[in-house]
Amino acid sequence: MGPHPAVAAIRLAVRRVLHDLLNEHSRDHEAVATAVTAGAPAGTGARTAPEPLVLVACSGGADSMALASALAFESRKLSLRAGGITVDHGLQHGSDLRAAEVVSRMTGLGLEPAESIAVRVGREGGPEAAARDARYAALDAAAERHGAAAILLGHTRDDQAETVLLGLARGSGTRSLSGMAAVSGAAGRYRRPFLELDRQTARKACMVQSLPVWDDPHNADPAYTRSRLRQEGLPALEKALGKGVVEALARTAQLSRDDADALDAWALQADATVRDDAGLLECAKLFALPPAVRRRIVRREVIGAGAPAGSLFARHVEEVDKLITSWRGQRAINLPGRVVARRQGGRLVIRQS
Questions:
Q1: Helices in 193-279 by DSSP H: which ranges?
Q2: Torsions phi, psi of 138, nearest 5?
Q3: Which of 55, 104, 235, 352 is the most buried (most CB within 10 A)?
Q4: Is 178 within any annotated ligand binding site?
Q5: Where are the alpha helices (DSSP H) in 38-94?
Q6: Is 61 part of any known ligand binding site?
Q7: Across the strands, what pairs with 342?
Q8: pLDDT at residue 47 in the model
Q9: At what angle do helices 157-169 and 234-241 cross, to 10 degrees?
């Protein structure tokens, strides 16, 4: 008799990602080996590729515990090592003890290394954004320290739907509506195997495997926007529109991602054609571009000048865009990260103050 359907589903999702990682690792090693052996003495053979390390980011919640268990199970059948990281945000009393307990659970699953990283959460962009920034910084550092090939994240289809709705509520563009990518980060570091699985599947998998889980009280705290959306917004939408809202929003994310990728590629090509010899953006040439392409160029320029991407919203970009399309001698525009945008001599000048 095979595993419970929920367990089979999470293992299959992780197995697919691990196979992708192994194929990428093999190709990268072969490319390096070819370059090295091309100039090596005759008879010198290529070395066998070392087993890559894959880490799971585990909070102790149902989604990440299900992911940790599937990674531990699948890694034993493949040529790779598996470890786990839990991040202690220090936002709740006893968080250090809870993080130590998560490490113990990961070790019990056979994950090695398994460690906790304490972070200090700032205030930039609000509590949720600040915690996310601190968490990813800690995960990036852990990946570099351990030489990890990838970090698995437990975001589900429900998380994707929430992300799309949050983007809609903020009046964000296509890129924001595309939600979370299955592969993201520097060199594809972050992988999200569960984006096509719902939250209940992960919880069921934990239950049938008798995996203890921790329900973060912040996830039900109405002080947090995502918590209110999860507890009140989505249930209200399903009551009004019927079941299938989460699945429809997830499909919207994928369609939006395809469109955003195409527009990003267009903007990247157009960028070089709208600059003067000094590299400054020329407003007349920007004006001739479609708005979706022009605003992408502007947004990338603002971020390049030092504005945090997570704090730069569509309204910021729209205000800068008005310097191009509705120029009436406006003052300079102050943007996140102490970045200032102004129009000078027909050029769009964006610099950090």
A1: 199-208, 225-228, 234-241, 245-271
A2: -65, -40
A3: 55
A4: no
A5: 62-75
A6: yes
A7: 349
A8: 60
A9: 90
In a domain, 312, yes or no: yes
Name the domain count of the chain: 2
247-275 pLDDT tens trace: 999 999 999 999 999 999 999 999 999 99
Residue 81 carries which side chain, given as an amino acid letter? R
Specify the pTM. Answer: 0.84
Please report whether residue 29 resides in a domain. Answer: yes
Is 253 within the bounds of a domain?
Answer: no
Nearest residue to 327 (alpha-carbon basis) of 353, 308, 347, 351 = 347
Question: Which CATH number do you get for residue 163?
Answer: 3.40.50.620
Tell me if 108 is assigned to a ligand binding site. no
* Tens digits of residue pLDDT in 223-246: 888 889 998 999 999 999 988 999
Residue 76 CA to residue 78 CA, distance in Å, equals 6
Length of the chain: 353
Residue 257 lies in a domain: no
pLDDT tens string 108-165: 999 999 999 999 988 776 777 888 889 999 999 999 999 999 999 999 999 999 999 9
Is 125 labelled a binding residue?
no
| 215 labelled binding-site residue | no
Q: Do residue 14 and residue 116 come from a single domain?
A: yes
| Encoded tokens for 7 | 């367990």
Q: φ and ψ at 128, to 5 degrees?
A: -70, -45
The count of other CB atoms within 10 Å of the CB of residue 247 is 14
| Residue 116 shares a structural domain with residue 174 | yes
- 96 among annotated binding-site residues: no
- The average confidence (pLDDT) of the chain is 91
